[in-house]
Amino acid sequence: MGTRIERRMAAAPVAPLSALGLAGSAQWEVELDRGGALAVTGATDAWADELAASSDPAAWLVGRNDLRALTEGLIFPAGFAAEAMGDPEFLPARGPEIPDGPVHPGLPRRMKPAPGRELRISAHERASEHWALRVLPDGKFANGTGRFDPLDPEAVKDTDDPAVAWRACFHDEDPDMWTETVEIVRATISSIRRPLVVAYGWLGSVEISVEGDVVASGRRSKALLDLLVDAGLDQDPFGAVRRSVERLATEVPDIGEQVPGVVLTVGERITPYTSRL
To answer: Is 33 within 8 Å of 16 (Cβ atoms)?
Structure first.
């Protein structure tokens, strides 16, 4: 006999969400769509009723001791056109993805002049990332990831610019190759109960460890971190992320009308099977 599915209409959904947890040996799963349709498995009727009646289902779930993973998004500012939001995929938020592997021996040891700030330099072919570098403020290449395949290995030995080295990996006329350089900014807050990752689309992303280590990376990484700090990141990380969505358009420089949807993941970065509900 299959698992029973409880269905309700949520009183006030903020955004689509998917969550799972473990109560003793029993796993529960939740899926909420943008229209408020709620599906729950592995929970009691009273549990489902309380969740549906909550003014903030995501916050209600985050407050549970038995939550393992929750992903909410896309979250948009109030008044955003519903027809432009698209269908939720419930994929965990993609974090800053700071390289942690060795630097490819074919690359120079450091960038000159020193950038004076921590950077993430990545190389792409269309939408695929080939490799990335973490550059320290003094210009040293600290870490790398991915593959680096120059057409002429000798051509990169005398350069201290990763972008120049990357261009040595393809023919000049190829328009599908590109590089991106973004700033990595860091902060420390009080320890938190579960890790949190929030992706702000093209603006960047922020990751917070259980120990309270905060790292942001992206085109507007510093502005995002400043916004979160101002929104109360140290006292209430989950609430600060929620509040930041409404303030993106007015407090992030040069964002204009390109306000991205926000995805946040609390706990484990796994994809629940709630799409089967």
So the answer is: yes
